[in-house]
Amino acid sequence: MEQTHTGSYTPYHPRWLRRRLSTYWWLEKPAYLWFMLREGSCMFVAWFTLYLLWLLDAVLEGPLAYELFLAWSGTPWVVALNVVTLGFVVFHAVTFFQAAPQAMVVRLGRRRVPPGAVLAGHYVAWAAASVVLWVLLRGA
Amino acid sequence: MSDHITLQIARYRPEQESEPTFNEYEVPYTKESAVLDGLNYVKDRLDGTLVYRWSCRMGICGSCGMSVNGEPKLTCATFLADYAPGPVRVEPLRNFPIIRDLIVDIGDFMRKLVRVKPWIVREVDKPLSEGEYRQTPEQLDEYKQFSMCINCMLCYSACPIYGLDPKFIGPAAIALAQRYNLDNRDEGAGDRMEVLSEYDGIWGCTFVGECTKVCPKHVDPAGAIQRYKLTAALESMKSFFAPRGA
Amino acid sequence: MTPSYDVVLVGGGGAGLRAAIAIAETNPRLTIALVSKVYPMRSHTVSAEGGAAGVIAPDDSIEEHIYDTISGGDWLCDQDAVEAFVREAPQELLRLEHWGCPWSREPDGRVAVRPFGGMKKMRTWFAADKTGFHMLHTLFQTSLKYGSVTRYDEWFVTRLLVDDGRVQGVVAIDLKSGRVEAITAKAVILCTGGCGKVFPFTTNAAIKTGDGMALAYRAGAPLKDMEFVQYHPTGLPLTGILITEAARAEGGYLLNKDGYRYLQDYNLGTPQPHPVFRSMELGPRDRLSQAFVKELEKGRTIETPYGHVVHLDLRHLGEKEINAKIPFVRELCTKYQNLDPVRDLIPVRPVIHYMMGGVHTDMEGATPLPGLYAAGEVACVSINGANRLGSNSLAECLVFGARAGRAAAEYASRAPAVNPRVIAQKTDEHRRLEQELFSRKGRERIATLRDEMQKTMEESAGIYREASSIRTGIEQLQRLQERYADIVIEDHSRTFNTERVAALELSFMLDIAQAMLASALAREESRGAHQRTDCPTRDDQRFLAHALVSRNADGSCRLEYRPVTITRWPPAERVYGEGAPHVRSHHAADRPVSSGARV
To answer: What pLDDT, on the 0 to 100 scale, is given for residue B236?
Structure first.
């Protein structure tokens, strides 16, 4: 920890020691590192969003653009980036879901839905959304 | 059955030094000895100059929060045997200015607490002659958890956001604001919203979640903050689509 | 510039905060200083568990609460004070409800009440088993909205400023800086609580060192009924941590080593599966603690590495009930005794809990010294007599905190200005503190003297006392006073010097301890918590009176007696168990305010 000071001691005047957090505070505890990874994962979520927008753009431009996009996507570094991104996005989703029961109180009538059920609800919703998308895309 | 364990205690003597140092003391312990018992042994028998706060020794007054092996703990409810064979490092709570040895200044929290108006706010007070406000056990459960805060400051010590930006109003103050917001006798949520939705209010929190983990009374300040974010977001949407006076 | 206020409060617990609010509401123009050696929310009120008594149930009556309190106090209570207390308690508790206290509730939303020891009806308001904690935080948080209150957190008061017989402020050390300051005021209210720390084994927190009693005593105010010290029958044997009476009120049993509910042998009724008012485990604390000693003498207690114990059995209540009504008991047992009351017996033994005695005040909290008031455990009005009933003290903090606050506000509004002369006393006090505590190189450790004082008190003023042991104690205390002059203070820092505070607290406690023993020796009878083996019966002829002890200039004690105020309840025998009297209320006017609203 870094130290800063408010001068030397004068009788009857407390001299407090103020310490600043070190720049590397997030390496001090596994929990803090985990938190930083979770925060960092949003960069990858952003990358996925951009990637999807490009895909959409290519599809709208026509078959040629689409082919070019596919070829670009197949290059090793884009594949590698997307694999890493997938990992982080799943991590992001899981930690987000984990946090959900703490952030929202769901009520059925007068009873509070237990946190475990709220968490399970998120996964069920995720699975359901995936199935619906799958069916739609298959049908298209 | 009395074993000994070494305490490495952070000392800061403002009259003499500008850096904290560590002193080592060997104290006896049994399986029931709290870290606080170790400190009292040092104070009473080995070194009368060590200073720290304590009072109830039963985990309810909130005085004896310190950093034990790097984790914020109530020293009266943390036991030496759990750290055997030692040594045990005892330091002042992080993120606060140190006054001396293990004593930190919590004046910042005391000033923030007042800002969130931690009392019942009502347009019209019910006269005493009309009896109590009705509150069912379910309504009590709505805020009860947040009313258990003993102001021990462990959550501020665990919160890196508070460490980086001391202007952040912090976990306990927000939890206590929520304690009143969720109380069916209270009508002050609007007043508190102004303070809580400031830049240094709830939006300062990035949900590290450590405050909840270190809370000795299971208050869950992180939950209180996230719930309040949801409320505040809904409120601002409401006022966007249906502005006041419309 | 010496800070000056209309009223200075010393102590920020239940009584102090209630008094502060009362002053602010009585006259918003009055300035108030709240001086406390700890942040107010650390005050010992925080540790109270079981509840606060106030008549609210439809089948209860003011009359019955009065009778329970007076008989519980073995007729040493001033009956006019008890009557005022019982009438005002429900309103005060209700006021706290309006301020947000999370009282436990009935399913329909009304405040719930539970039974308690020595009480004939359910009248104890509770917030699970953290009642004191919730009351204190409610009061503290509510007090924050009054701009007229200036807090002096972590300031230790070392003496009262007295000029011309009138108390006009305090001298205090600001612990953070080490500065010694005078804070002047037209009126001072002491709300510093009790002094359990004069004994070795106590439920009391480290801060309960009798500061306010000693400040008043040294300034010339008498202490009253100091011989009456309450042992709570159920403390955890190692730490002295309190296991609330609510554990028995919810149905817990006290068992000896044979698993026998031994209280039935001591005139406390016959055992029933469920709790019965004023019977067995719901008897008064003095009788239960005395029964423990008798069991010990019969060899029927359980020997443990931490002394002899009996067992508190909660297992039959079941996990659900324990979690709902007394969760803190479970938390404390798990943490500090390594057992779970859902499955295990809890070892318990009597533990010093409360001082019935204190600074002599009238019903408005006024002491004989003009300008000096006291409320809460530090004071003796007396509503507790020779033995306090559980759950009366939290309500007492509110009722008499408010009364003292209003009376002091009234006094300060018309009192003449503070005489500037008193500020000179600060210089004297500063010099004394420097000389006594910093310039001295003595040999005696504070902790050693404190341990010896505590041992002396336990041996001479325990549950049972006798003249010879009290006399020995008095001699030992005298020697400790002499040795105190030779203490060593290793810490010469001005910043947060807790060793200096400990020395001043020890000095306060030695004075209080002497007053206790002097009163105990003079009371040659057995009444309530004061049981003399050499004078085993109650003697109304000689001792239906309050003992007032004053301090002579040389530090010795001077005793006088003052008759107890008896109004409508002539002294009678205390009966518990089946024979317990049932007092009916005949007056509609006795209906409490709150239950009237619900008819």
So the answer is: 85
Q: Say how many CA atoms lie within 13 Å of C403 toward its Cβ.
A: 25
- To the query of whether residue C445 is one of the catalytic residues in this protein, the response is no
Tell me whether B218 touches chain A (CB under 8 Å): no
Contacts of B149 in chain C (CB under 8 A): 137
Let me know whether B143 and B57 are in one domain: no
DSSP class per residue in C255-312: E-TTS--GGGGGTS----SS--TTSGGGS-HHHHHHHHHHHHHTT-SEEETTEEEEEE
Q: Quick check: A7 contacting C, CB < 8 Å?
A: no
To probe the interface with C, which of A12, A16, A110 has the most C CB atoms within 10 Å?
A12
Q: Minimal Cα distance from B173: which residue of C?
A: C141
DSSP annotation of C527 reads B
Task: Say if residue C56's pLDDT is above 70.
Answer: yes
Show Cβ contacts of residue C455 under 8 Å, excluding neighbours closer than 6 positions: C200
Q: Please indicate whether, in this complex, the C-beta atoms of B54 and C206 are within 8 angstroms of each other.
A: yes
CB contact under 8 A, B120 and C142: yes
Sequence-separated (6 or more) residues with CB below 8 Å from residue A2? A19, A20, A22
Yes or no, beta carbons of C499 and B49 under 8 Å apart: yes
Residues B127 and B217 in one domain: yes
Q: Do both B53 and B122 map to the same domain? A: no
B246 belongs to a structural domain: no
Per-residue confidence at A108, pLDDT binned at 50, 70, 90? confident
Give the integer Cα–Cα distance in Å for C154 and C157.
10
Beta-strand runs (E) in C144-236: 149-153, 155-163, 166-174, 180-190, 223-224, 229-235
Reported as a single tens digit per residue, the pLDDT across A68-91 is 999 999 999 999 999 999 999 999
H/E run at residue C318? helix C318-325
Q: Is A110 an interface residue toward C (CB < 8 Å)? A: no
Predicted confidence band at A109 (pLDDT cuts at 50, 70, 90)? Answer: confident
Q: Which CATH number fits domain A25-139: 1.20.1300.10, 2.40.50.140, 3.30.300.130, 2.40.50.1020?
A: 1.20.1300.10
Q: Tell me which chain A residues have a C-beta less than 8 angstroms from the C-beta of B11.
A: none
* Domain range enclosing B23: 3-104
User: Any CB–CB contact under 8 A between A13 and chain B?
Assistant: no
Domain ranges of chain A: 25-139
C248 labelled catalytic: yes
Reference C98, options C138, C129, C128; nearest CA is C138
Q: Least CB-CB distance to A25: which of B15, B141, B163?
A: B163
Condensed to tens digits (0 to 9), the pLDDT of residues C228-256 reads 999 999 999 999 999 999 999 999 999 99
The partner residues of A39 in beta bridges, in order of sequence, read: none
Which chains contact C through at least 3 pairs of Cβ atoms less than 8 Å apart?
Answer: A, B
Best A10, A15, A22, A95 member to test B by mutation, with max B CBs in 10 Å, is A15
- Using the 3D structure, point to which of B56, B86, B104 is the last residue of a domain: B104
- Which run of H or E residues covers position C9? strand C4-10
Q: Are residues B62 and B126 in the same domain?
A: no
Which residues 48-87 on chain A approach chain B with CB closer than 8 angstroms?
Answer: none
Count of structural domains within chain B? 2
